[in-house]
Amino acid sequence: MVQFQRSLEERISRAIIRNTMNDWLKLTAVDVVIVGAGPSGMVAAKYIAEKNLCVVVFERRLGFGGGIGGGGMLFHKVVVDEAATSILKDFGIRFERDEEENLYVLDSSELMAKLAAGAINAGAKIVLGVQVEDVIYRENPIRIEGVVIQWSAVALAGLHVDPLFVKSKAVIDATGHDAEVLQIVCKKLPEANIVLRGEKSAYSEVSEKVVVEKAGRVLPGLYVTGMAVAALHGLPRMGPIFSSMLLSGKKVAEIVVNDLKQA
Ligand code: 48H
């Protein structure tokens, strides 16, 4: 009898398709969806996944890090203040103290790579090239129960392709300056009464504090972290200091974990 042998080309395709589909079937219903693999999203992902919750991060681009890679005006360093150094330690990210400025300095490439590694090692799945274009909601009371997703390439090509759904107990908007998920909810679900006040001009000292203070639950099932907090509450920007991005990611993770425990 002739032994039927698949070619390497067939085996490559089959391995990728079967294993992707196995993953995607698990991703149809998760505990937490995080939208955006920037600093705040990846920090939130690690601390939530560590609690044995099923976390997926959908990132529109084919890489993670969000605004980190640009450093400060393309200089390859970013800074944090002392409050955020414990998070850097949790992720094994190296930093140096600048004595003159009383700030902690680190390489943007190391921050990007190790935030992603930390989230993935804790068990979070980061899926690249997928964007969130809408949410799933339920009424009485109004709540968010998942997201509507599409390949970024389809959106970029302007093709009319119907999307798919991912159910989740919590959705975190970590989309940065544009607060994209909140914008969608604000526009399409007026009964949610979300008012996006829009980010204000730079006032780093204030912004670094209030962004962390205001990070958290927006309505049942919907949470906000990172720069999206500034867009929601009309808070100033801070420039390439990343403490509030990391600290707000950790804070939103604690709130989500606590809410899911009580549910
Ligand atoms: C899937 C999406 C979608 C979508 C966007 O911008 P980010 O780095 O976000 P933060 O808030 O974690 O960090 C902000 C920081 O990088 C920054 O810009 C600072 C500190 N600025 C201060 C200043 O003064 O300018 O990352 C957001 C990520 C990006 O990778 C996007 O591609 C992604 O979210 N994204 N992914 N579906 N609808 N929208």
Characteristic key phrases:
alpha/beta, FAD/NAD(P)-binding domain, 13 strands, binds ligand 48H, 8-stranded mixed β-sheet, single chain, 263 residues
Protein model, in words:
This protein is of the alpha/beta class and 263 residues long. The protein has one domain: FAD/NAD(P)-binding domain. Helices cover 39% and strands 26% of the residues. The protein has helices spanning 8-26, 39-49, 85-90, 108-121, 152-157, 180-188, 204-214, 227-233, 243-262, and strands at residues 29-35, 55-59, 77-80, 96-98, 103-107, 125-128, 130-138, 143-151, 164-173, 200-202, 216-219, 222-224, 236-237. Strands 1, 2, 6, 7, 8, 9, 11 and 12 form an eight-stranded mixed β-sheet that branches. A three-stranded antiparallel β-sheet has the order 3-5-4. Strands 10-13 form a two-stranded parallel sheet. Ligand 48H binds next to helix 2, strand 2, strand 7 and helix 8.
